Amino acid sequence: MIIGRVIGEIYSTINHPILDHRKLLIVEKLTPQGSAQDDYLVAIDTVGAGVGQTVLVIDEGNSARQVLAAPNAPTRSIIVGIIDAIDVSGDPETQPAGKARVAGRQAGRSSPGKAPRPDAASADSRET
Q1: In terms of pLDDT, which residue wins out, 111 or 87?
Q2: CB 3.0-4.6 Å disulfide test: which of 9, 45, 93, 120 passes with 116?
């Protein structure tokens, strides 16, 4: 996975059908400390990212096709998360509560089809 910052959008009227109604973003690669690298990529947005936001990018074709549920899609890079904070010091006190939103969910929440974590149960269900 790659950490990057969205620096622009690409508009295309003639493209492969898998790109219809999908936003293409230009992502500048970043170091974990947030410094720009001298490289960029074009990625399909799946999380509603915008210019200026720090994002998590999968830059591997098979994984990108799995996210799109399109095994024959001609794609390589896909944005799968909007990063809220990065902690490179190892100090958990510097992290905000909602670390990263991945595919529209906050980290730590259960995914569809999985049982919720025990600590996520509501107070009502514990009283019975």
Answers
A1: 87
A2: 120
